[in-house]
Batch of 2 targets.
Target 1
Amino acid sequence: MRSAEGARSSRADQADQRRAELLDAARRVVLERGLASTRVSDIAKATNVSGGLIHYHFATKDDLITAMLRATSESEVRRLREIIAGPGTAIQRLDRVLRFYIPSSRSDQSWILWLDAWALGVREPHVREILLELEGGWIEILSEVISQGMEAGEFTCDDPQGAAERLDGMLDGLVVRYTLHSGAMSRKRLLEHARIAAAREVGVDRSSFPA
Amino acid sequence: MRSAEGARSSRADQADQRRAELLDAARRVVLERGLASTRVSDIAKATNVSGGLIHYHFATKDDLITAMLRATSESEVRRLREIIAGPGTAIQRLDRVLRFYIPSSRSDQSWILWLDAWALGVREPHVREILLELEGGWIEILSEVISQGMEAGEFTCDDPQGAAERLDGMLDGLVVRYTLHSGAMSRKRLLEHARIAAAREVGVDRSSFPA
DNA sequence: GATTTGACTGGGTCGCCAGTCAGGATCGTT
DNA sequence: AACGATCCTGACTGGCGACCCAGTCAAATC
């Protein structure tokens, strides 16, 4: 069942690559145009591919969108895990997580995707499930860093899970505000709020955070 | 330009009433079906009215939706103002605000509207403006109650505005979680989080809140 | 080198839905 | 009563967009 094990470009590989390419284009197009006004043909155009090909690889538009959201969510959680496995004190890692949460600049509109997904998730159980896993991932990571800090004697916290839920919620809410009305909430102020709240939750002084 | 000042049912009144009725139906339909799959004809059906009539009172569907969101937002802010103008100690009023924030039961899905509106607001400046006013209203009210409490000597807080922003953000984020996955976050737990965070922000003990 | 399999094209179809329009009913005014 | 303004109806349309399909082409297999 194939020429040699060195074969890098079998038919299956080609299909996988094409699917990944389509997911990528889908993400870009949805970010740019919004879920509501994204057409299958837009994604086809962005990939320089015929409209028919989309439906060859994905049965329906919903399938494509759902797969794209799943892929994005999984890659986000993967990067998060790398962060908390990284070097530094617990507070440094916590700070890195907070900064990863927050859009890195005015032009980073990646959160738009999740605003669309939240609205979609209300009606679509598959999407809702993806969102549940993503949020669960965030909370778990936060709670894990806090526990690490407690073991290291850096932090004090009698309910890491609860603290993680509160922090995660606050960041979600503030990022919505920042994404929608960046004029009313600067990135600096957002990060400051995050550090103040996090410092309180883990029982350290706000000045313990890096400048 | 009219019979007597006692006239309660002039043509203008009738039109106003019909418009209000349509806005109300629009809200119900959007909550039930979601913005994305709400048709103008659905709203017409829900009002027992012809499709054409909608476009007699509202030029476009967008106009109708925007007006509905504006009306809903304004009524929400109005009710909020009543709460903080009400009786009781500052902490009682603060608690009332928190409880007004949180959906009153599993079946209260009113927040779905704002999830849809957030996604819409990314592309529609008019909607974004409404959202800005609504959030601004919440933050202002929170900050006002906190200030009242400080004047009364109940609270300590060196940045009421910042505290209000953090609380508002946290509640937004947690309510999203509650609305989307009520299984992962009970109303009780949500309220508990709100009280813990609020107590910290205003420098009182969590036990100061009503049971 | 013949045949099969899989990737891909592009035109077509079919249903849906916002918005239009011509006309009808009802109200207020004179 | 007559008339104009306003409210309302329901059939219609024009465009759009997801999905289908018949056919092409190239790579894999025999």
Target 2
Amino acid sequence: MASRPTLKTIADQVGVTVSAVSLALRDDLRISQATRERIQQAAKELGYVYNRHAAGLRRGDSGTVAVCLNDLSNPFFTEFLGHMEARFREADRMMLFCHAHETPSIQARFIRQMAEHGAAGLILVPVAGTTREDLDGAQVRHLQDFPLVLISRDVADTGFDRVINDDVLGIRLLFEHLYEAGHRRFAWFGGGGDTSTARDRECSFRQQMDAAGLPVTRDSVHHGPTTLEFGDAMLERLLTMPEPPTAIMCFSDIIAFGVLAACYRHGVRPGVDISVTGFDDMAAAAYSAPALTSVRVRTDLIGQCASELLLSRMAGERYPPIRKVVPPELVVRASTGPAA
Amino acid sequence: MASRPTLKTIADQVGVTVSAVSLALRDDLRISQATRERIQQAAKELGYVYNRHAAGLRRGDSGTVAVCLNDLSNPFFTEFLGHMEARFREADRMMLFCHAHETPSIQARFIRQMAEHGAAGLILVPVAGTTREDLDGAQVRHLQDFPLVLISRDVADTGFDRVINDDVLGIRLLFEHLYEAGHRRFAWFGGGGDTSTARDRECSFRQQMDAAGLPVTRDSVHHGPTTLEFGDAMLERLLTMPEPPTAIMCFSDIIAFGVLAACYRHGVRPGVDISVTGFDDMAAAAYSAPALTSVRVRTDLIGQCASELLLSRMAGERYPPIRKVVPPELVVRASTGPAA
DNA sequence: CTACATAGTTCAATCGATTGAATAAATACA
DNA sequence: TGTATTTATTCAATCGATTGAACTATGTAG
């Protein structure tokens, strides 16, 4: 029944004031070592639990950071989560987490709530279609000078820090790899969402096609969700064509895995009869059947860089907004080969 | 420069007291509708942001719940996260999140910190080897009567609520499926961690073998981490045996995917030359090459049930600790077939 | 015209930790 | 011995929202 002990409880027990206890528990040298030890001992015995609400109220900092992702079912994003979590734990920051499900209203609500909680910073993979307006004014007036780092997806015209992958380069690497292997008939299985990632990758695909003097027809570009189902279904459709493409570039590994599954069912051999590429190089890409050619997005570097940037902003660093673009790496595996 | 507005700021603006503002913002009927509207209007104009530290200090509830998982790289666990996040969002609870990396010290620290934050409840997938002592006394004296729900993995002798999968049943379903298909030489690729899941599944495997009158030899049981690498490497080893098993049961889909990858490289046809089963039935299982026979762990039901249980405990419900066991479902796909 | 609800608002204490300033005690210095 | 300095601790205000009790009009019943 005894309610949670407070500084007062300890103070009474030891015979000092709350001030002394407060200082002692934080190892302040103003309190003599002897007293400090008695106080810390008593705190332990009483099972004292620090109250961050009280501390946060007085100090204005809650010791938390907020992270908002949009798609947990995609391991690619959980890789980010892992890397950032590690860095924040190191910095002794707790993480408020939100799964926005690509839904603007969820994202907006989370931004408001994390502000209410006094989170000191926010890392955000903006949901598709997020605009500048969504990020400032709208929810939290004081977001203007609030530490906020966008990752993975870019939002134009923001005054925020951003850490993103070089999607244009990634597609170029894959395209060149396929082109050099003799492929001339390409298909693009692209992300349908309104994100910078989807736009940049598809745009880069079209540029490469143009530069190679290859026509982009209605049959070469297909849009859909980033799911296994989409890749699977799309390949089924492609196989009914009179002269199907010999190389399929997918917006994401996830889609490519779907394509591989459909190939397997139809006895089409990826890397021999057809070439398939992914994007992201998630862990499973090395173990698909066959192993998937992809570009490795450096989630580790991006995640670390973003956390670092956020922590430095939180520490009060002032500099113009940074837009960091991290180059990915081509990883050639068995799912691609010379054009038949 | 103007610091964040408070109730006082609004009160001065409108010409009422903080009490009135506090009540009005929460739509308390004690304040006349006219005044309420004026206050709410002013709050909006000033860009007022609710301060949960202040409210939490006074009310003793921060409106957060804590969730601690141990392995983000396994999509199986992020499925839980998704389901719980949805339920908590619905209940207007924020989520403090921790990735314990199977590390007891991280788990312990998180438990302490979430208590400091005044989280109203905790859902935990305990890290391998977690004991009763780790969960009470040790970190937070007041955890005794603290809403805590364990999921996925069980910890013996706790007085806490638990929601877990019926692992024994799952293995039995898979075994019977394989046995009826004529398989008699089995291998078990098992989780190496000290978790109830690893123990229960392996134990069930041994029971089934016994019941079928099949010997469990040194060559039939293999332990390792829940990774693609482990499954891959283990199959390589198995193929060097003079008389390899015809059926391989894996502790997790992840391991099975590694096995399928190795099969593919060696031209061994899963479902024809050898049968492979996973466990969990994560989304990718339907799209592996070939599609994987597995048992579907109802992460949706378990996640929902756990959140529901936690919310009801948080609401003050008192009843003896509940141990809810959710039955999984057999999903037969192409990776298993009649014994050669 | 008094007594009495009733609605609308304010008063004032409270939650628990923090911190700059003040005080007391002990030690050093002249 | 008296004063300056250091060390150890306490005082008291503060952060911002909440809430039971108190107060003040206004209206209603007797």
